[in-house]
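Late entry, adenosine-5'-diphosphate complex.
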Amino acid sequence: MENDYYSLDANDEDEIWVVEDDDSMLEAELSKRFNLYNEIGRVMLSSLDEKDIYKVAVEALHFSMELRHVALFQIDYQFNELVLKAQTGEYVGFIPANYRHGLAQGIMGKVAQAGQSQVLMVSKKRLQEALVGKAGKEFYIPVKIEGQCFAVLYLVCASAAYNKPFDMLVFENIASQIGVAIQNARLFTEVNQTRKELDTLLHVSRDLSASLELPIIMDHLAQRLLESLPESRLGLIQFKDAGLASLRRYYRISDNDVRSEPAVEIALTDYPELTHPQQTRQATVAYHTDSQLLPRRIADQVKSMEPTPFLYIPLNVQERAIGIIVVNKVGIHHNFTERELGVSQTLANIATISLHNAGLFRQIEAANEQLKKLNAMKSDLLHIISHDLKSPLTVISGYAELLLERPDVMAARWEATLQEIISQTQMMAKLIEDTLAVSRIESGVFELNLCDLNLLDILDNVIAIHQHECLFLKNIPAHLPRVRADKLRLHEILENLIGNAIKYSDPGRREIIVSAIPDHQAGKMVISIQDRGFGITASELPKLFSKFYRIKNDKTQRISGTGLGLYIVKQMVEAHDGGIWAESQLGEGSKFSFNIPLTR
Ligand code: ADP
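Prediction complete; structure with ligand written out below:
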């Protein structure tokens, strides 16, 4: 390495171990130095920030002890490297910010591994290469925490200065003070971090349990995860049907500002990296160069060849996988710490509980809706039994009693009486039939048996039933396309509309125009039943299709009905993916039209 000023590659022949002694150290000088390193120790211990301590230590050593160069390297055991953390000095030019060197190389590596201080004379040869001018001496002092070396302090001084064993003691003492200061700072950070994590977990459980909406819970989870994982970006995947998923990418702007991109749809097969976490259902870390699952950064282009750690957290609700969260630590040498993995898993677990609750809540809501419907149906049924079924029964039993008690009076009218009894019975049967149809529709039991049908056949069928009651005119093109419908239901729809057209027209004006016009563009057949009956006012038209709605006027008051026919027809048409509407002119007649899909 060209700019290697730290004797990492020094040859053994360059090394001259200095063993000198001098009894002439003045007492004054001794106490001056003693005070000096005490002061350095005091300055270091006043900070509780690791980076700050490195900087303060290096600078204090450099200035107060008049050293030519001071640097501090921390050992990164995960990658077996020494990383330059702070430096100062008169002769060193540019050194990359994140200067790293293998732990197995050079004197620095040996010192780090053995944990033994070393002194090295800088040879003339190396002087020319690295230092500007003056000969010097290098000190390598291990910095330890609880006996384990975690950094190396590197000092360079003029060759005449600091060459006594006493000096080495001073340096070692300062190194051990750095160790104490760092240990304090780490403990402080840990306490702080634990407090922050507890705070986050408390907030999260409060936030998450406050919502029962799946998207809100997921969003909170993503935000909180990013807040507790520094230097990271995140992808939130929610599974959908047919191997599809929705993906939302999250990124940080600052500590408390997390943003997301709009959700996009992805096919899970495009992301094989999700297969393993999906199968194991465990949070796992894997190394990749990059992932399309995460927001892009400019830095990605630069480091795209360097693998970085990706954390996959599967989200399961009661054995069912509902999604995966992917988090990536930005930066080549960053990994997830045990604590971060723990916090992430805990957050995901809390979210899972909330998601489970949200699921239960939705089930309760659905059940509640169903109960409300059943309750409304029960009220309808009670209404029908108490009013509509009771009045024909009263008529029937009244006539029956009269026939029994006064056969002489009834003898002349027996045929009309029986006719009335039959008509009331039919009315009751129709009411029961309609009520059952409504309850089938509303309870969701109602199913369609869709076929490709010839509409004309069905129309002719219904017309044949009623041809003795009125005159039919057909407005139907010669080659009528087939429709996609349920035969029985379509028959029922037509029967109902034609029945009404006859029922609500004066006998002298019973004339019905049946038309069927295909609308190829919309893919629908428009079918209309037009009569010359009583007609309906504009204000009443919108209410016709409501349950139990009946028009009450002079013309209709003697006509029996349930008010359920058009409601049932509307539900049936809509089940076919169609629509129904009415046009009318009072005194002129009405036209009821509906559309249903053409066969494709
Ligand atoms: P019902 O015929 O049993 O009363 P419907 O739901 O079939 O119930 O019709 C609701 C109301 O709409 C009827 O009471 C009637 O007043 C009005 N109506 C339906 N069809 C026609 C029509 N072709 N002409 C005039 N009024 C109609």
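Confidence is low (pLDDT under 50) at residues 1-5, 8-21. Will revisit in the morning.
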